[in-house]
């Protein structure tokens, strides 16, 4: 992910100069630095954050070190784009929110890149236009081909996958989640022993809208992310699997042919453009001294909802979420 | 509905002769009898059921008189296709099931016409083929344009609309529902005061599959019935709104044009072919002395699940369903 | 084809009794007669046509014997549904038209079943409604998986496949074809040596509308029949390959999954409903003493256009068609 | 177009600095220069081309001045991205090709931006992969909502619209066009008096592949650009009108609802991403001293084919094209 962002900044983004990389893995970062024309390398990310020639930082480090690095960025007053999660629990997330607030300047953008995806942006604009009336329901689908992680646990579906749906629901509906219920179907045989996959999560918002979520991380087919919004006078769907090329194909064995196309293999392909637009918007806003994307508070609140979701995954009953006033 | 079936039998079905109509509304039934070339008319449906020249009966009468009419058919030993609901409550449905069983002959088919719809039949065949592995989830959507009924109540969404989804879930998955939870979003402003619309219903089956249902009877757009089945190695969707004619259309005001097509206005249009196939299959089976479609037991069990659903609509929590052995 | 029609009449059509079959192949027709409950069999079709208990005849015999059989039907005054082609050349077709006219009664319907296909009917209604203005262009696509015929020749693409497109163009546009140009691309390697496949045919109508046709009978994928109508204020497409079931599928080898569905393997599957509706409409009209589908004149004119098309296939240049006044 | 490119270079492209603008219209260029932070302005484009601080030039000037400006760029040895057409006739295009060749350095890229559109790139990759066998046919569709130009003439459809299809056909098939036939349907009533719109153009390539083209510039619906490639074992379509957001919409008058979405209003929306990718690729290649997109020879050959197309538009018969060896 860090390498993706580095290449993106170096080759596809206007108005930014990539000046330094940091990674404890010297071999990996060295090869990348060479590919990118001999850019400076720091072994310690905190050294990079402290450098005079750094105006803004992208954090793609493990979530467990985010708090320390974010606080360093805030202390130095540099803009930072932090891949999700903001931090690993709501207490540390709150400390980041409060440090940023104490500093008096907006500096942190969280990497919920879907808010920059053209389809999501169009859906948001359509819902906000009021042309379809009030939005009553969202149906969100999130499928991954598989999860290679050997220690994968059910909670990681909530924390790493459902978290995107939670942020999207809050953003699309423009209101807070007040409860979450996680329902556990009998798992697919492709999940590791003991892992609940797929999961159904039901969110309720402050105004009473309901959001159903299917998260299925061993779906075998590919990366499918879809939203259907149901409003008073119409509905809208984004994320239909469509590669742009629609084919008819003969069956090599002489059987029935088929029509259709490939499914995106992973989030990199599906959200490539969203990442480019996210980073360009972050660079542009940082140069103006602003934050225009999801904030540290968005990261904090999504962590709060995920925490409640993990409780509901264990109990099966709805768990209330208390969101502090903004 | 009765007139539709009469015209269907008279003009589109092989192997049947329409010999008599019964309806307490003399003017209405008289006009229809004339249209259909002077067919016999009975004021009392029980007289029709008792007629010597009647081998088989279609009941499209109000649900409240179904029990009496069904028992009369069973007593005389004539085949009967009964529009849903079988009867108005599970006790009377059970009496019908037991009367039929006591008679020793299969005579009753319930009008769950979707089981004859070509798309549903193909989906069922695909799931049963095992090509996609075990089915883990169903997502069912059921939208009506509006409900004209002046006394419409929230429970009728469960009893008259959700009942179709319940039967489809049982049939597609080949197993029984063990619990139902009905979730109440804030209603659309197009629903009557006090009516919960849309509703989200969550079913769980004996094997642990989960079925999510959206039922929305004042959706304004049209009649949309859709199923997505999610299995271990793939998914399948039927009921995408598609009229067969895909158009591009200029905006009369000179604005952006649009692509797409019309949505079916109601179930008559959407399921026209399903009704024809249902009635043809019923006629063919009746002549062989068999019942090949949904049975009285299917009608009874769906009523049991609906009864639990109405309890959950009131309480918001999951309600268990006890299905008697077949 | 004859067996399909016999089964259809016996099991899916209201208002008709199948009373007799005729086929020189005794074994084949005997088995079918047995399947259909011991129906009468004639070795000579002319004997069947002459039978007292026959009111209406379906001809699914080879085109080379159509003239004699049609003239016999006309002479006896029985209604006849004749599979295309009406006859093998325009001279004999004209003799049939004139014999029917001399008899003073409309008796012949030609088997252009697409005119009864629900999608075609909706497209025709849309074009006739005038909502999109005048129709300027049709783009027609006609693909078969393969042609098993060992003596297949390029002309047969015009006579047996393009003929359907010619009839559809005349019917959809409501006017006559005045010229035809057949263009010969380099053939697919799946065509027999010397066969021009695919072919592009350009029709021009009396009002100056242009119809482009792709006919490709060794397309390998399946049976794809599609029309796009382009009008002054919009366009409409029918025949998009869509089975009704839309699937996502995992790649067994672990590669990218795909979305889509199967393509109809042949015309029997694609036009099953059209055939049912065609035969039901023919039965209904015959009982009223009318012909409501494509007439002998439609069969004759399509043969005229095909004859010109075969000339253009040889020369590559447009060939004018003279259609006699109706 | 020039302003679009200037804004793109200033805000969305990595590795380029926008240093100067030139436009004889002082007011227009002054406003744009101010928007872009006080960039230098030249009244005479030749002055800009001669500037020391200019390494590469984008020409979005009228086609009539392209020859002079291109020759100036070639003489100074600066890279140039020239919007189509290369020049107004094949003689002047040939002079540019020869001047570039004489200079010994590749410097000119022509603005056929579709070659950078992700859908076109995927289609090209699919055809080149050989997975579907040899490509036999292309069907290309090119519709504009309307042409505002008061002096619009039929030839401009060939020169300004069909030219894109010609370039795409050459590129997708990897071979030259050997003949072109333009067919003139009766025009839409929305075309100016005397303008032939739509037009059907048939191209034949050196290997015998056939390309059908519909160009319709007063289609009223929007900007629709579509290609269907038909190969020996499958077909592929790009450009289906799909905004990414699929909606169902209630009819405000209470009639049938509809499904679908908006059509792109113009090429700016449809090909926005293609333009970004084109300019980024041009900047990257120019910095390496290379040309990676369509060359001056591509511009010259497309002009040759268009010239033949304009002759065929007048005569209606196929016109041969002689393409010089590369």
TrEMBL record, chains A, B, C, D:
Every GFO/IDH/MocA-like oxidoreductase domain range: 120-236
InterPro entries hit by this protein: Gfo-Idh-MocA_inositol_DH, Gfo/Idh/MocA-like_OxRdtase_N, GFO_IDH_MocA-like_dom, NAD(P)-bd_dom_sf
Residues in Gfo/Idh/MocA-like oxidoreductase N-terminal domain copies: 1-111
Any one GO MF annotation of this record: nucleotide binding
Keyword NAD among UniProt keywords: yes
Keywords: NAD
Pfam families xref list: GFO_IDH_MocA (PF01408), GFO_IDH_MocA_C3 (PF22725)
Name of the featured protein: Gfo/Idh/MocA family oxidoreductase
Organism: Janibacter limosus
């Amino acid at each position: 992910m860090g390498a993706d962002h580095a290449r993106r900044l170096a080759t596809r983004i206007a108005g930014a100069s990539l000046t330094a990389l940091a990674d404890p893995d010297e071999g990996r970062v060295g090869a990348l630095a060479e590919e990118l024309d001999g850019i400076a390398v720091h072994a310690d990310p905190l050294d990079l954050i402290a450098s005079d020639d750094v105006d803004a930082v992208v954090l793609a480090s493990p979530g467990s070190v985010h708090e320390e690095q974010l606080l360093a960025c805030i202390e130095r007053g540099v803009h930072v784009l932090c891949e999700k999660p903001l931090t690993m629990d709501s207490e540390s997330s709150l400390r980041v929110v409060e440090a940023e607030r104490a500093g008096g300047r907006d500096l942190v953008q969280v990497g919920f890149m879907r808010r920059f995806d053209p389809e999501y942006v169009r859906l948001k604009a359509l819902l906000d236009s009021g042309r379809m009336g009030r939005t009553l329901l969202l149906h969100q689908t999130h499928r991954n081909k598989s999860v290679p992680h050997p220690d994968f646990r059910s909670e990681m579906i909530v924390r790493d996958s459902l978290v995107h749906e939670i942020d999207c629901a809050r953003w699309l509906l423009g209101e807070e989640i007040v409860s979450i219920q996680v329902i556990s179907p009998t798992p697919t045989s492709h999940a590791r022993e003991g892992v609940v996959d797929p999961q159904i999560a039901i969110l309720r918002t402050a105004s009473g809208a309901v959001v159903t979520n299917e998260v299925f991380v061993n779906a075998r087919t590919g990366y499918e992310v879809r939203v259907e919004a149901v409003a008073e006078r119409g509905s809208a769907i984004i994320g239909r699997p469509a590669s742009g090329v629609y084919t008819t194909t003969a069956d090599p064995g002489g059987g029935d042919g088929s029509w259709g196309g490939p499914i995106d293999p992973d989030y990199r392909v599906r959200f490539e453009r969203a990442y480019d637009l996210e980073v360009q918007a972050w660079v542009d806003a940082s140069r103006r001294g602003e934050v225009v994307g999801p904030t540290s508070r968005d990261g904090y609140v999504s962590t709060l909802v995920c925490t409640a979701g993990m409780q509901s995954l264990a109990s099966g009953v709805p768990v209330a979420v208390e969101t502090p006033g903004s």
